[in-house]
């Protein structure tokens, strides 16, 4: 079972949850950091295109495990430029249908390829038998 924890006496998070509690008989999937690389190995230009590509990659890994974005309980986002946050957030909301999780955003100086602008890793949980 997944329970959202957003205390009423704390600032309301806009694009994430303060906490996500997992209990019961569950399967856990740890997703490696996904980047905006297309299936043909190319990297599209721009934060929106890279974000759409990386969420398509996340979706494919989730589907392989019989899960979807609603099963994600935690994400860690690595952005190379703070100016890209609004465009990333809009593309993420579009890609996930607005589904939220607990989330951490970290600004970094770069990723393993200089043209990469964003990477997202995730943890997903699904109740056994669901």
Structure, described:
With 130 residues, the chain is of the alpha+beta class. The protein is built from two helices and six strands. The protein has helices at residues 47-64, 85-96, and strands at 2-5, 19-22, 26-35, 72-79, 102-107, 118-127. The model has no long low-confidence stretch (mean pLDDT 92).
In N-to-C order, the SSE pattern is EEEHEHEE
CA-based shape: globular
The largest pleated sheet is described as: 4 strands, mixed
User: β content, as a range?
Assistant: 25-35%
Summary of the model, kept short:
The protein is of the alpha+beta class and about 130 residues long.
Strands, helices and their partners?
Elements: E1 2-5, E2 19-22, E3 26-35, H1 47-64, E4 72-79, H2 85-96, E5 102-107, E6 118-127
Parallel strand pairs: 4-5
Antiparallel strand pairs: 1-2, 3-6, 4-6
List keywords for this structure.
23% helix; alpha+beta; 60s Ribosomal Protein L30, Chain: A; 2 helices; 32% strand; 130 residues
């Amino acid at each position: 079972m997944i329970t959202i924890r957003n205390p009423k006496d704390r600032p309301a998070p806009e694009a994430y949850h303060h906490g996500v509690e997992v209990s019961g008989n569950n399967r856990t999937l740890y997703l490696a950091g996904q980047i905006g690389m297309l299936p043909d190995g190319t990297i599209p230009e721009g934060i929106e295109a890279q974000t759409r590509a990386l969420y398509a990659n996340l979706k494919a890994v989730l589907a392989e495990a019989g899960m979807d974005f609603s099963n994600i309980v935690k994400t860690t986002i690595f952005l190379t430029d703070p100016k890209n946050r609004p465009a990333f957030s809009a593309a993420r909301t579009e890609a996930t249908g607005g589904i939220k999780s607990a989330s951490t955003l970290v600004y970094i100086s770069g990723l393993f390829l200089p043209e990469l602008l964003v990477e997202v890793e995730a943890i997903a949980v699904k109740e056994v038998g669901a």
